[in-house]
Amino acid sequence: MKKRIFSLILSLTVAVALFLPVAAYAASTDVSTEVDAEYVFDVYGLLTNSEQRKLENRAEEISEQYGCGVYIVIVDDYEDYAYYVETAAEYIYEDTNLGMGSKRDGVMLLLSMYDRDYDIVAYGYGNTAFTDYGKERVAEEFKDDFRSNDWYNGLNDYLNICERYLGYAENGKPVDVGHDPEHIDWGRVLFKAALIVLVPMIVAGIVVGIFWSQMKSVRLAGTAAEYVAPGGLDVQVSEDVYTHTSVNRIRRERSSNSGGGGTSVNSGGFSHSSGKF
Questions:
Q1: Under a CB-based contact definition with an 8 Å cutoff, are residues 109 and 118 in contact?
Q2: Confidence (pTM)
Q3: Using N-to-C axis directions, what is the helix angle for 132-147 and 151-170, rounded to 10°?
């Protein structure tokens, strides 16, 4: 009888020992939260319930309007999910079954609070609406708020810019290199203005200076005879007869590269932009 009890206790101990690590890992990778969320998952507890619900409703509105899921996931440490933040973002996107429609279209912002890492990951139509350049511009929209720990406004800014970028993409013009209606590169504008205005002025000044220096020895003559070259005026008749013009045309092939734009999609169908906040 004692042996049976001992065997039963030993079996229970082994079962618990085997179950605990699995349960701990499952808990560490579960992105469910107190708020019934489909778009905004605050595992870390960064937001109040009220803030999370407001962001959830806003994200749902944008996602339903454009048929492309817009998500936010906040965790303690991305290394609880994978070694790299990009791999962790892909794991969460896949494991949580994010994305809308048969192609699982979407874009997700992952925040890892331990070392203040972020990753913007896109999939399906999200790769079209959020180019490599576009994702960098999206990050600039929220990083200034995050640096001052203004989390709610930063996340709200993220949702707002996602809405605008989805609107541009819907009209056939996603934000990309060479097409950014919200950003003016004043350095480039001023450089082009300098080339257009200053360079011609400098060249014209040099030409005028050369002619001016050659005119220093010129003076008005006292009589008309002084304007006649020595030996008199020799007038000869010359004729040019036009026959034809030869034109050679060489065809130039157009490059398919639009200047470094587009989206870099990996073998898993994801694209990323990551960094620190």
A1: yes
A2: 0.66
A3: 160
